[in-house]
Amino acid sequence: MMQKPPQSVDFALKQTSPNIGAGSVTGDKLSSTYDLVEQMQYLYVRVVKAKDLPGKDVTGGCDPFVEVKLGNYKGVTKHFGKKSNPEWNQVFAFSKERIQASVLEVYVKDKDVVADDLIGRVMFDVNEIPRRVPPDSPLAPQWYRLEDRKGDKAKGELMLAVWMGTQADEAFPDAWHSDAASVSPDGIANIRSKVYLSPKLWYVRVNVIEAQDLVPSDKGRFPEVFVKAVLGTQALRTRISPSKTINPMWNEDLMFVVAEPFEEPLVLSVEDRVGSNKDETLGKCVIPLQIVQRRLDHKPVNSRWYNLEKHVMVDGEKKEMKFASRIHLRMCLEGGYHVLDESTHYSSDLRPTAKQLWKPNIGILELGILSAQGLMPMKTKDGRGTTDAYCVAKYGQKWVRTRTIVDNFMPRWNEQYTWEVFDPCTVITIGVFDNGHMHGGSGGTKDARIGKVRIRLSTLEADRVYTHSYPLPVLHSSGVKKTGELQLAVRFTCSSLINMLHMYSQPSLPKMHYIHPLSVIQLDSLRHQAMQIVSVRLSRAEPPLRKEVVEYMIDVDSHMWSMRRSKANFFRIMGVLGGMIAVGKWFDQICNWRNPITTILIHILFIILVLYPELILPTVFLYLFLIGVWNYRWRPMHPPHMDTRLSHADAAHPDERDEEFDTFPTSRPSDIVRMRYDRLRSIAGRVQTVIGDLATQGERFQSLLSWRDPRATTLFVTFCLVAAVILYFTPFQVVALLTGLYVLRHPRFRHKLPLVPLNFFRRLPARSDSML
């Protein structure tokens, strides 16, 4: 099979050499806990409070606020009405790269309708401002006497702290940034960096056993009873009970996903199918999940009877009627399973729900989100293209979001984050987005996706810092586009090599997945529900991690049909089989004596292995060992990244891309849907033919001894008897030697007609004759 050409240089991974502190001992670097990012200098101003401010308006009061000015950049605190001793406790951060002024000016002003009145000011020489580097304690604020414009003392004092620091400063995340001076006050919360935690998810197992003493309205018919269970937006139902009595039995499991804290109760209703589209409710019960037993293993939990309640109409009013009907349930919150809430291929966490079952971590993952380059304009503002970029990284239950860099195609974040690692065979996902909520409010806009990067931890060497620039390809209906590059620094530190190597012998999922496995259909449905719960919960945080961002990060739509992805998977299979095909071609050349010397050497090796069969397995494993050692020279030196050629993103037909981005259900015109349906029918026809051929070959094997063809079966059983007798008296080594020499015989002793066993097999009957 021909090798696919390498992908375009634009979509290739590039090694970088950022000026980070990892591996360095120079004094101007950040501390070792923050050494995967470049140092960024900021001038910090903490405005704490003021006292004894004079009144400026006719009423003798003042509405004070503080204005911090450095060159062309100006930050303003909120103002207080009629207060002479206000407290603000706000921090302002000015990027040193953009500082052009030599004086920092801090003004205290009185808010006025016409023009703000100056109460006083404090001036600082930028070159004289002290420097602070964590882990030093925060700089203590001091009282400063206010001055008027002439430099004379004014009434009132202002408490300030002013220092030079870096992005490692604890004041950095919540500070007002000069880079975001154009953002409205309502939108400030939407641009700050934040850490989020996914909600703790549980599987809820409801084993519906039986019900007793049901009271159907029509007592002259056999009731067709089923149980419907509703938990939030999830609704499941049992089958109709086979015992059509007032004491029906089911013994059926229903599985739900729920997140802590439990907000919705489980509502069970017993219903009778009285018509084709009509169900009558025979009773309901509401069960709060807080009282449900939690189990950590496969030991059965105690069952319990619950009374059923029914509402009846009396004089036009709904009244609750309690009676003797009841339902028998066995319910539990499953702590021994891992709730799958992301695509299986990119799982970042495989631990069970119950914390008691967690094992110690095996290492630490550190990620430095440095910068991006060459970002594409994602929206238009004032007639020009602009991008307000931020990053989101997800690993395990921890999500991180960097601050938004406003109106910049080459943003520099330089933020570092850390995760505990419990399994090396997991994936961290980093996505880049354009912030569509810069001016506050939810609005109808969405945060546009710029691209994402996945890094599998098992491909990283321990304790090595990887600094690469990752391409950000995004597939649109118009084709694949590179929207920029993301520069990252990654380090995986192993705390226990033995524990990490031991993980490779352990099952990937908790043991409950193997002791009481869930069906594939159940897992797909539960995964979809879990994804919805996670996206809803995170979108309710403040500031929200929006639904479109979460769904893109956890690949909600990865299960949808895509012709492009199907082709890519087919060629992946062919790539896997390519090695076997190459071995087959090589063996065919040996059998046909293309290179006589090689064939003679193979003969000698074969004879040695036949005479000394105890050497076969050692030879095989030694050969695999030598191949592995030989390939070590060409081992990958960088993590894998998004491959546009492997994904067939650059070769997809426009209609295939349009189909991939179609909604579900489809929103395309009927003629396009008809064309795509016919195309799927033709593809399915080919798949159907291949499956039929496989079934035919299997049925021919079955017919060897089924006497469907009496002559063929007679020949086969006779051959088996003769072979059994000959093999009983002939040493196995002789049989193996003769067979091998026959297979490796010279082309002079070969002919082009098929072999006799193959001719015999192809003549055997199959059940294809009985197909309509």
Automatic annotation (TrEMBL):
<dbReference type="Pfam" id="PF08372">
    <property type="entry name" value="PRT_C"/>
</dbReference>
<comment type="similarity">
    <text>Belongs to the MCTP family.</text>
</comment>
<dbReference type="InterPro" id="IPR047257">
    <property type="entry name" value="C2B_MCTP_PRT_plant"/>
</dbReference>
<keyword id="KW-0472">Membrane</keyword>
<dbReference type="InterPro" id="IPR047255">
    <property type="entry name" value="C2D_MCTP_PRT_plant"/>
</dbReference>
<dbReference type="InterPro" id="IPR013583">
    <property type="entry name" value="MCTP_C"/>
</dbReference>
<protein>
    <recommendedName>
        <fullName>C2 domain-containing protein</fullName>
    </recommendedName>
</protein>
<feature type="transmembrane region" description="Helical">
    <location>
        <begin position="600"/>
        <end position="630"/>
    </location>
</feature>
<dbReference type="Pfam" id="PF00168">
    <property type="entry name" value="C2"/>
</dbReference>
<keyword id="KW-0106">Calcium</keyword>
<dbReference type="InterPro" id="IPR047259">
    <property type="entry name" value="QUIRKY-like"/>
</dbReference>
<dbReference type="InterPro" id="IPR047258">
    <property type="entry name" value="C2C_MCTP_PRT_plant"/>
</dbReference>
<keyword id="KW-0812">Transmembrane</keyword>
<dbReference type="InterPro" id="IPR000008">
    <property type="entry name" value="C2_dom"/>
</dbReference>
<keyword id="KW-1133">Transmembrane helix</keyword>
<feature type="transmembrane region" description="Helical">
    <location>
        <begin position="570"/>
        <end position="588"/>
    </location>
</feature>
<feature type="domain" description="C2">
    <location>
        <begin position="185"/>
        <end position="306"/>
    </location>
</feature>
<feature type="domain" description="C2">
    <location>
        <begin position="24"/>
        <end position="144"/>
    </location>
</feature>
<feature type="transmembrane region" description="Helical">
    <location>
        <begin position="715"/>
        <end position="744"/>
    </location>
</feature>
<feature type="domain" description="C2">
    <location>
        <begin position="346"/>
        <end position="470"/>
    </location>
</feature>
<dbReference type="InterPro" id="IPR035892">
    <property type="entry name" value="C2_domain_sf"/>
</dbReference>
<keyword id="KW-0677">Repeat</keyword>
